[in-house]
Amino acid sequence: MPLRLVLASQSPARRKLLQAAGIEPDVLVSGVDESLVVSERAEDLCLELARLKAQAVLGRLRSTAEERTLVLGCDSVLAFDGEILGKPADAADATRRWRRMRGRSGVLHTGHCLIDVVHESRAEAVASTTVHFADISDEEIAAYVATGEPLAVAGAFTIDGLGGAFLTGIEGDPGTVVGLSLPLLRRLLAELDLRIVDLWTKVAPGGQEIEHLG
């Protein structure tokens, strides 16, 4: 039975990461209001948000006998200095964060919730990666915030964009920092008796033809 992956996220970075790994997802934005969910633990918060996103999209899908549909919800938060940091409220908030984070470290947590629509089964988990921030200057912070990039992402930084220059290293899977861990996705698929190769498309990145192994 053909497999379809629906990504319950508007994040271009998550979609691009999947595409680079040979997976072409459909995208449906969940519309979940993240501000309504509160938790004292970053791991619990990101997993609950991932779960809510997947469930919201699930309610808009219809299962068919012709294909097996999977819904993947993801959410990321940064645990730093005893606080849980999502997207900054505005430029001033992003600036304050960077002045605190520079020269220090935090842990980026990304929750994953994978639901099999046909079999009504679910697998979920959190991936965590330690991020070390460079001791950047006030001028660099101002220039970075002015680009608008840190305003759209959890923790006010990226690893795969302009913000990558302001990190000195990570401990863990870099995909977690992007917002989706491929090794964790593989493990979640296995819990549903599926293989990640079953999601590969026939055209690999760069246009190289590959055989569908599913």
TrEMBL record:
Q: Cytoplasm as a keyword? A: yes
Quick one: a GO biological-process term for this protein?
nucleotide metabolic process
Q: Which GO terms describe its molecular function?
A: nucleoside triphosphate diphosphatase activity
Q: Where in the cell is it found?
A: Cytoplasm
InterPro entries in UniProt: ITPase-like_fam, Maf-like
Q: Which domain of life is it from?
A: Bacteria
What Enzyme Commission number does this protein have?
3.6.1.9
Q: Which family does it belong to?
A: Belongs to the Maf family.
The UniProt keywords, alphabetically, are:
Cytoplasm, Hydrolase, Nucleotide metabolism
Q: Where is the active site?
A: D75 (proton acceptor)
- Major location (coarse): cytoplasm
Keyword Cytoplasm part of the UniProt annotation: yes
Enumerate the catalysed reactions: a ribonucleoside 5'-triphosphate + H2O = a ribonucleoside 5'-phosphate + diphosphate + H(+); a 2'-deoxyribonucleoside 5'-triphosphate + H2O = a 2'-deoxyribonucleoside 5'-phosphate + diphosphate + H(+)
Descriptive protein name: Nucleoside triphosphate pyrophosphatase
Cofactor(s), by name:
a divalent metal cation
